[in-house]
Design goal:
single chain, 179 residues, alpha/beta
């Protein structure tokens, strides 16, 4: 699993533990400098014979033309590779969390605005202290919310202002449950 930052890493690690997935997250593969290093990390996973699942925020490309170009090159390079799963979210992974509570693809702008909307439903902080505790992921899994988020994302697709491909990663993880 290759994540663009601490939130992606924490989410996948907690989800893996809580749901019994057989997948490794590598701290060295979860950084805040995507897309510049993601290509290097994907190459390492492929060289080891693995499948690279890449979680990243697409609003990063709006920060600069250079980042946008790198992300476009990265996506073009791997979009047809069966051993690479690209799971971008616009604007950020927090949009995926919001889909656990709302069916919306309205323009949310930035991660901060998504977090503000998410905090109407659950406590969420983008701090290492908060993210390190599994309770927030347990909250997302409670009462069938994961299935609701999957339905919401599937029904909304990627045509709106906000979207996510994280359901593809969840389906991949479901295939890799511990027996």
């Amino acid at each position: 699993m290759i994540g663009a930052g601490l939130t992606e890493k924490a989410y996948v690690e907690h989800l893996t533990h809580l749901k019994g997935y057989r997948i490794e997250t590598h701290p060295r593969f979860c950084r805040n400098d995507t897309p510049f290093y993601m290509d290097k990390f994907v190459q390492r996973v492929l060289e080891d014979g693995g499948t690279a699942v890449c979680l990243y925020d697409e609003d990063e490309s709006e920060r600069s033309a250079k980042i946008q170009q790198k992300l476009e090159e990265f996506v073009a390079k791997y979009k047809d590779n069966p051993n690479v799963m690209l799971c971008g979210s616009m604007p950020s992974i927090e949009y995926w969390f919001l889909l656990h509570y709302e069916k919306t693809n309205r323009y949310l702008g930035t991660s901060k605005r998504v977090i503000k909307a998410l905090n109407k439903h659950m406590e969420f902080e983008k701090t290492e202290k908060f993210l390190s505790k599994p309770g927030w992921v347990e909250t997302l899994l409670a009462d069938g919310r994961l299935q609701q988020a999957m339905r919401n994302a599937d029904e909304l697709g990627t045509d709106g202002e906000s979207y996510t491909h994280i359901p593809d990663a969840i389906r991949f993880l479901e295939k890799h449950k511990k027996k």
